[in-house]
Amino acid sequence: MSGRPLLEASNLEVYYGETRALWDVSFKVEEGELAVLLGSNGAGKTTSLRTVQGVLKPRRGRVAFRLREISGLRADRVTSLGISLVPEGRGLFTRMTVEENLDLGAFTKRARSKIDDNREFVCNLFPILKERRGQRAGLLSGGEQQMLAIGRGLMSNPELLMLDEPSLGLAPVVASKVFEVLGELREKTGITILLVEQNIEAALAIANRAYLLDTGRVIFEGKPEEFRANASLRESYLGL
After folding, report:
1. Among 93, 177, 87, which Cα is nearest to 139's?
2. SS3 of 64, please?
3. Rounded to whole angstroms, how far apart are CA atoms 182 and 45?
4. Helices 142-154, 115-125: crossing angle, 10 deg rounding
5. pLDDT, tens digit (0-9, with 9 covering 90-100), for 21-32
6. Whose CA is closest to 193, among 231, 230, 164?
7. Mean pLDDT of 129-140
8. Which domains does the chain have, with CATH numbers?
9. Considering the entire predicted model, what is its pTM?
């Protein structure tokens, strides 16, 4: 980790129509670290990721990537700068093959020249995808589909990989494998990861930095061990 913010969101206020979803939300992710946005449903986690990606525009505040403001950019332009979002629900093209889904992730100029290398990297990370490369994505198990979604996100050759609830709907043993892979991915490649999760314990186990959102506000920012050491948070959110 370099100590330099790769991504910095400052004082974000985001609305859906006239309903306010984020209230003065700020967070940052330093280069090479894994940061996690925690919270229950409706806390503002997904809204935060969609705002970074350019799907939503803040009424107030800014998002900066490598010190450059990106708040007003289209989502495809944000991706081309090196930010990739693996959405909740995976968003796969179920009638297309595994390999076709992967290659769709390499639509940016920065990724097209490295498509073969990136595909090989993803298949080494998730060997099952290599075995199933000619199979329709809709025939994969839930865990395999999540691996494919992560792999497609990596095909854009991102500097920042954002994942929205990657363990959602997975059996505990499969979810544990996903978290293990994310931790290894950060450690072995140095890629920066911003993770949204409701599985707080599992996310804290692999994170360098944690934020807790509640009803659109950041109510905690710090290291995972600081979260665990906070008696009120531990009781309210970990049941300990």
Report:
1. 93
2. strand
3. 19
4. 150
5. 999 999 999 999
6. 164
7. 94
8. 5-238 (3.40.50.300)
9. 0.91
